[in-house]
Amino acid sequence: MDMIMFYYIIIMLFVLMIIIQQVQRYKREKKVIAKSLKGNNYWIIYGLFWIVLAYSNLKMFMRYYERTYSMLNPEYIKSWYELLDYSYVKELKQSIGLSDGDMKYRVIDRYVSYGYDKLLVAITQTLFAIAYSLRRSDWTCTIIYEDGIYGKNGNDTWNRIISYNWSGLRTNSNNVEYYDLEFKLRDSKSRSRSRSKYFFGEGKKSISMSINAEDMERTDRFLKQNIVDEHI
Q: Where are the domains of the chain?
């Protein structure tokens, strides 16, 4: 398998992953009971880092592209998009019959050997940034769904939650009124304690959330139906 085909596969996998993420998000949104107030958005910086890398690779691709296009147009190519067809350009390189010492041959050879790599790397990095950002945007807050609680530290179904407790009304820096909500959890029976603790959040004893005051009563009614034990 050559590198171009490898990148094609990676790109298709990223596109598929983004589609699956969005479908899952759409399905989950119908089951949301309440969301905690969002935390920090440091993940945006990491996403932007990958976008900057993608832009850098795209600029390098454009240098190869513009030099190759100016040299081959209009004698060998008529339209700008012809240079984006990898198979066509490889066949063109062979059919022109230029020697290794010819400038045109060296330019088109560099474009085929390095230019496409830069383009596909840029696309891959952009898709990674999108997929990462979409995923991390779900982790900026803890969410109560119909089937359990989902957050950046793991997911917990209702059979693991012992009880819950509300604390007093507060106001944050954005003048949003909220209540603190804490859930007490049963110990996990996972066989792999060390691994599950760090990757699935099964080592934690409680979950803390900040719920908008407007959602407090509706959330409390739902919790009373799903958690049998008394408040802690």
A: 3-19+40-139, 143-226
